[in-house]
Structure formats: C-alpha cells, structure tokens
TrEMBL record:
Organism, as annotated: Herbiconiux sp. A18JL235
Superkingdom field: Bacteria
Keyword set, alphabetical order: Hydrolase
One annotated GO molecular function: hydrolase activity
Protein name: Glycoside hydrolase family 99-like domain-containing protein
InterPro entries membership: WbsX (IPR032719)
Xref: Pfam families: Glyco_tran_WbsX (PF14307)
Length: 396
C-alpha cells in the first residue's frame, strides 16, 4: 500500500499474567490478573464481557507458553514487544514474564524486545471497589536518583546487550512512561537531565553508542503538568530524548466528551488522536511515532457489585472496535509515518495483551486471530522475519 519503507511494528506487553510475590502479598497466593479477566461481566446490552482468551488462561512465565506468543507475533508481522517494565523504590515488579518467559523461550530471536519504564503509581484497581472513592496507592511511581541508578544498572547489564534487544541507530530503545514523575523524583529538570546523561554514559561503557531515550507523551499539554511547557521542544532536547511516542489513544482525548458507557465510533476517536499526533510531530523537535490502540474496556477492573456510572471522577467509556475498524486505524498510522518521512519509522500497538483494558492482539473466542491478521494485511511480513514456529497453532 506504500512505496515508503515498512515501519517497525512493536506491541506493548503488559506482564501481569503470572504469579508475582508482591501481588501474592496484596491479593493472595497464586493471584494473577486472569482473575480479573474471568470476573468481567456485561454492563449494558451488547457489552462483550467477559473476554475469553482462545489460548486459555496461560502462565506467561512459562517459556513454552511464551514461545507460542513469539511465534504468533512473528507470523503476523509484529516485530517485537515493548515490555511494561516496573521498578519502584525497593526494586523490580512483574519481571518473571520477561526473565523466565520471553528470554529463555526456545525461539526468542524471532521477535525482538525493548522496555518502557512504567513509572506510574500502582493503584489497587484489581478490581477497583467503586468509581467514587480514589483507589488505594500500593506503590509510588516517583523514585529518587539512587533507585533510578539501580534500575538503570540492572537494565544495562541484563538486557541492553542482549542481541534481541531493539536498537535504533545502534542505541537500545528505552521509553519513559511518565516523564513528569521522573523529573519530580530527580528533583527538577536539570537533575533529571543529569541522571539521563549518566544513563547514557553508563550504556556507552558497554560498547554501545548510548541509549535511545523515548518520551511517552500524554494529552493536550503534550507532557505531564509537573513539567514547564513553554518550550516543549527545548525540554525534550534538554532531557536528551531522541523520539516521542504514545501508549494508548485515550491519553489524547477528553473522554468526558464521549457518550457513556458505550463511547461511540472508534474512527471519531482516531480523528482526535491523529490531530494530536500531527501537533506532536510539528512541535516536539524529535520524531514522533504513532500508536494504534486495539480498543478500550477497563470495566473488569471495576468490582462486579459497583455501580458502573459516570461520576465526579470521570471514568472512560467503552470502545469495542471491529477488526476492520482496527485495520483502518493501522492504515492511518502507516500514512502518518509515510508523511513524516523519518529515517527510522515505528508504529506501536496497544497492546499485545491488555486483557483487562479491552486492548489486545492475542486471539479471543469472538475474534480469533482477526486483529493479528489485520496487522499482517496492512504492514506485510516482517522484513527480517525468521521461520515461524508451528507450536503457536494452539492459539489460532
């Protein structure tokens, strides 16, 4: 569909479908987020809940399970996963999917991986008790310089030199989800810039040319409220970011202006989102890489006995696009990349497996592999694809 080079297609991976020691302390032995998925229920006529994974409620920390996912991604033109990577003041969280699932899988070279530091507050929405009371904060996403250096040191030593890690111009790709929280934790913009220069210098000690820092941007203000916004391009440059990207479409719209509980046409959301994307490309001073979101339905993260209503704390409505709606959004993202003409081109997808947010590429019992097939149709096969592993057939 385009004479321009094929963008790299990277899907966000949310690693909460395995047993984790913190989760077990908070929620009980053996808990994982499949429990929330199973408890989903329809909130209005025609609401598609619960969502049921076609491959079953698997343990992503099992390398055989992850090998199936890798092969499925490879067959459908997904070049890699961006793992949501958690590290708080006292260390890592939800690491086993990457360390025990992806990394030792027998076909890991088939798709690459990178990290997005998910440095947001961890709130108890597993499930949320109601839509009026703010959920309990389990961990703060704002950490200081010492904790940041421990995380960065671990990332450099454990992941950056892995041959499967995503590189841009030779630099390992590393996203920061909440730039504002990072700046606040470091003590200000100058201190944050110094920490990121240290991160880059430590990366260069491995023989790599440095780190490719990617800023995840949010909403109409472009960057979170903690950061001065008079000169976004200057700020991005001062912090050393080489690109900017998006995590999910609802970060770029005013959800209160859409109908509730069903949010209306997905294409209309895309109109708002891509208008924001064009602005980011113009004003940030670095390449902006568009995101395509599969859908949005976080209702399973609200307790079954809670009233599902719009409140003084506006809760996003539900969007359940068709596979063709999703394909149209993918084509829009590819056209965006063609117009931008950046030397390196990338499209992110939310998400590979955000089951409790209704945004996933993995097959379910309603759509089977339809969402994945749309990725393959729009972007074609991976340019560096390795032979696929037929062990993924159980998920098809």
């Amino acid at each position: 569909m385009s004479a321009s080079p094929r963008p790299k297609v990277l899907a966000y991976y949310f690693p909460d479908y395995h047993a984790d020691s913190r989760n077990e302390r908070w929620f009980g032995p053996g808990w994982d987020e499949w429990e929330v998925v199973r408890a989903g229920l329809p909130r209005f006529d025609g609401h598609r809940q619960p969502r049921v994974p076609a491959g079953g409620y698997t343990d992503e920390a099992d390398p055989a399970v992850f090998a199936d996912q890798i092969a499925l991604a490879d067959r459908h033109g997904v070049d890699g996963f961006i793992f949501d990577y958690y590290w708080y003041d006292d260390g890592p969280y939800l690491q086993r999917a990457l360390d025990e699932g992806y990394l030792p899988a027998h076909n890991p070279g088939a798709v690459e991986f990178s990290l997005m530091w998910a440095n947001h507050d961890l709130l108890d929405i597993f499930p949320r008790k109601d839509l009026v009371t703010p959920p309990e904060r389990l961990k703060s996403g704002t950490i200081g310089r010492d904790a940041f250096e421990r995380m960065a040191r671990h990332v450099i030593d454990s992941y950056f030199t892995d041959p499967r890690y995503t590189l841009i111009d030779g630099r390992p790709r590393f996203s920061i989800y909440e730039v504002g929280a990072f700046v606040r934790g470091m003590g200000g913009v100058q201190e944050a810039a110094d920490a990121l220069r240290w991160f880059d210098a430590e990366t260069r000690k491995t023989g790599l040319p440095g780190v490719h820092l990617d800023a995840v941007v949010w909403g109409f203000a472009v960057l979170p409220a903690e950061i001065p916004l008079e000169n976004p391009a200057g700020l991005v440059a001062e912090l050393g970011f080489r690109s900017a990207s998006s995590y999910v479409w609802i970060h770029h719209i005013d959800t209160s202006l859409h109908p509730f509980p069903a949010g209306g046409p997905w294409e209309a959301v895309g109109d708002e989102v891509f208008a924001q994307y064009e602005a980011y490309q113009d004003e940030l001073g670095v390449p902006f890489h568009p995101n395509v979101t599969v859908g949005w339905d976080a209702s399973p993260r609200v307790a079954a006995d809670a009233a599902f209503t719009r409140t003084a704390l506006p809760y996003p409505p539900i969007w359940d696009p068709t596979p063709d709606d999703f394909a149209n959004a993918l084509r829009r993202a590819r056209r965006f990349c063609d117009r931008a003409g950046n030397p390196y081109s990338e499209v992110t997808i939310n998400a590979w497996n955000e089951w409790t947010e209704g945004s996933y590429l993995l097959p379910d019992t309603d759509n089977a592999t339809a969402m994945l097939k749309r990725v393959a149709e729009v972007f074609g096969p991976r340019e560096l694809a390795q032979p696929s592993d037929d062990s993924a057939s159980a998920l098809v």
